Automatic annotation (TrEMBL):
Protein family (similarity comment): Belongs to the RRP7 family.
Region described as Disordered: spans on this chain: 231-269, 284-313
Sequence ranges assigned to domain Ribosomal RNA-processing protein 7 C-terminal in this UniProt record: 193-312
One GO cellular component, as annotated: CURI complex
Name of the protein in question: Uu.00g097970.m01.CDS01
One Pfam family cited in the UniProt record for this chain: RRM_Rrp7
Matching InterPro entries: RRM_Rrp7 (IPR040447), RRP7 (IPR040446), RRP7_C (IPR024326)
Length: 313
């Protein structure tokens, strides 16, 4: 249980009553903090979302569904995303969404292959061994409500609790909607940690299917790279030889890159030593004096020519 800290002006404090438990037979009060969701990257549902801080460690969606039903009635709460779920979505769902957008320009056959690969990788993972996940103390969540009016109704109901002192009871109305904790939770974990031989065999078969596919893709990539010249225009001959000659255009392009690289290297080494810089400056000064002398002679010749000119009368 958490003591009530000084909350920010942006947050509303929601006290909930924690009933006594066999392991801790004392009634306690837990404080949640709510505000309108305002992420750095805005989404379409931000106006009807609430950001929740300091959620209880045993929180589940049925717990918050019952909590919001106690505050503003049923039908206002839709879903909730916990902090650990958002981290998983950031690493998996967002790239998957980007892949789906990229697939719009690909062939249907390619889409079916990638979908099949994802199914194979999912089948290669061992089943979860916990019937219910606990949350880190002080973690956060984002609750999605029916509309923006529901968000205002929840915040208004939370402000009224300060006067009534009738705090909602945590877990009231949940009953069998969430898997139990305690000894039953640990027994279920112990049982799920030892799946049957048929389950393990299916997972291993799926794993080696994915492994062999990725090995084949790596071999094809290596085979293709053996035919591509490097930046110096050479093709590395590896064990097994090359399956085909390098493309002529690619070789010419690599040769041009090699020449550019050599020229850049020469330019960088031109003034590497101090005496080279001194000699270059002397040469530039001599060239400037030579051109100045040539210009002076041209001007003198033009003056002499102009002095000999006699206009007709």
């Amino acid at each position: 249980m958490a003591e009530m800290p000084t909350s920010s002006e942006d947050f509303a404090t929601l006290p909930v009553s924690i009933p006594p438990l066999p392991s801790y037979p004392v009634q306690a009060t837990h404080y949640l903090y709510l505000r309108r969701n305002a992420p750095r990257i805005a989404t379409a549902n931000d106006s009807r979302c609430l950001f929740l801080a300091n959620v209880p460690v045993d929180s589940t969606e049925p717990h918050f569904r019952a909590l919001f039903a106690n505050l503003v009635g049923a039908g206002r709460f839709e879903s909730i995303t916990f902090e650990q779920d958002r981290k998983v979505a950031k690493t998996s769902h967002e790239p998957a969404q980007a892949e789906r957008l990229a697939k719009m320009h690909k062939k249907r056959k390619r889409e079916d292959e990638e979908l099949q690969h994802k199914r194979e990788e999912a089948a290669a993972e061992l089943p979860d061994t916990w019937t219910r996940q606990l949350h880190r103390s002080g973690s956060s969540a984002v609750a999605l409500l029916a509309d923006e009016k529901s968000v205002e109704a929840v915040l208004k109901a939370v402000r009224k609790l300060k006067k009534s002192k009738k705090y909602p009871v945590w877990g009231e109305g949940v009953k069998d909607k969430a898997p139990p904790l305690g000894s039953l939770w640990l027994k279920a974990h112990n049982k799920m940690s030892y799946p049957g031989n048929d389950v393990v065999q299916d997972v291993m078969d799926a794993y080696f299917t994915v492994f062999n596919r990725k090995e084949e893709e790596a071999n094809q990539l290596a085979k293709r790279l053996r035919n591509e010249p490097d930046e110096d225009g050479f093709v590395t001959v590896t064990r097994g030889g090359r399956s085909a000659p390098a493309n002529r255009d690619e070789a010419e392009e690599a040769k041009q890159r090699m020449l550019d690289k050599q020229k850049k290297k020469q330019d960088d080494m031109q003034d590497f030593y101090r005496f080279q810089l001194r000699e270059r400056r002397k040469a530039e000064q001599a060239d400037m004096l030579r051109r100045f002398d040539e210009d002076r002679k041209k001007v003198q010749a033009m003056k002499e020519k102009r002095g000999k000119f006699r206009p007709e009368t």
